[in-house]
Amino acid sequence: RRVSDHKVLNSLVADLLVNLDREYLKTASVVQSLSQFVTVEKAEIDADLDTLFSGNTMLQESWMKARGCVLTDPELSITLSCSHIETVLKACLKSLGESGYERETVERLSSLTLKALRASGAIDDNTSQMLRGAATIFQCVGASRNDRSVSHGKNAGYVPPPSDLAQTINHLAGVASVFVMKQTALVRKSSD
Asked: What is the pLDDT of residue 117?
């Protein structure tokens, strides 16, 4: 018999279906467990960030708006996550006594903040490198806002971002913002 024979093909397909069903049953509990784990971790990250931003009404409101539409409007969440970063960086620059940053892009705001923090002399080389990493995150969030959100209109062939991308961007924006806020607070404390 040949593989192209309908009876042989039907037998192969039937065997494949049985094997796939068996594999699905083996992995279904793992997939469910991982899904539950991710849901719990997401909730814990959100709660931690909510707490960290709760000391400043403007920052908390900015964060909550960006987080609130991750699932319902990923495009808007990406835009608002970038806006949140800009709000945090402006607050950091203000607390460091800087001026002239009010209309700058997220890329420029992150550069100015990094420069001001380094100029203080209160951060070590490793922290400076981590701040450069945070600046890279900020720049990538800004680029994602430009490419994957509604902030600059849509081009032909535009594909809306999935909610998991918006969630990742939102969490990166939150975590990196908190890191820069804490470094700013440490620099201010050392200068007092």
From this structure: 93
